[in-house]
Write a structure and sequence with these properties.
Blueprint (H helix, E strand, L loop, with lengths): L11 H5 L5 H21 L20 E3 L3 E8 L3 E8 L4 E8 L4 E9 L12 E10 L9 E10 L4 E6 L4 H5 L4 E4 L1 E7 L11
Parallel strand pairs: 5-9
Antiparallel strand pairs: 1-2, 2-3, 3-4, 4-5, 6-7, 7-8, 8-10
Length: 199
């Protein structure tokens, strides 16, 4: 018969809880709890409304201006991107739309900003794009998310906003489209506002 050894070294549990292994076990337990808590919190509703637009991650816009040209990019429709070009000399504003599935430009929209922003000989322009969600059907303007483009005459402060009348069904069918940009609004940055009109 083997005699029972009551020394601390005979018990595995006692060796596990020795002074050297206790901090390691504690660290492993705390790490497992933090990991489990992170998984649980990741499945909880944060309460912050999630935007359905844009559907495929982050979409960035950019703009640049020189003495002769201004360019900008912006979302047109739900998946297409527009390339906006403004010729400062002629006032011709164009938006060429890239059809992603076709891998080519499939639409062009145009306007002449000099017809609206009637500045002097020293007129210069700056241009940026933005997003607007128009109520109504699927086409632009009048339905769904899409780009608007803002152009300002730097010599007078007058500005105009255009919407892109983009037809999503034409894009889905890979049909080319061409149309005039639609004026949404206009204004003057140097306009003097009366306090009573803002109340």
């Amino acid at each position: 018969m083997v005699p029972f050894d009551s020394s601390p070294n005979c018990c595995r549990f006692a060796r596990l809880l020795s002074s050297r292994s206790l901090p390691l076990c504690g660290s492993l337990f705390v790490g497992a709890m933090v990991f489990a808590t992170g998984l649980w919190l990741g499945k909880q509703d944060s309460g912050i409304p999630q935007s359905p637009w844009p559907p495929n991650g982050l979409n960035a816009v950019a703009s640049a201006t020189s003495e002769s040209f201004s360019i900008a990019t912006g979302n047109v429709g739900r998946f297409a991107e527009g390339f906006f070009m403004l010729d400062h000399d002629t006032g011709l504003l164009q938006c060429h739309v890239l059809y992603p599935r076709a891998g080519r430009f499939g639409a062009v929209f145009f306007a002449n900003v000099k017809e609206v922003l009637q500045g002097g000989r020293d007129s210069g322009y700056i241009m940026v794009t933005g997003d607007a969600d128009f109520p109504g059907g699927a086409n632009q303007p009048g339905g769904g998310p899409g780009s608007v483009v803002y152009v300002m005459d730097t010599s007078t402060g007058a500005f105009v906003c255009y919407a892109v009348p983009f037809d999503r069904s034409a894009e889905a069918a890979q049909r080319p489209q061409s149309n005039a940009l639609v004026i949404v609004g206009r204004g003057d940055a140097r306009q003097v506002l009366e306090r009573d009109s803002l109340r």
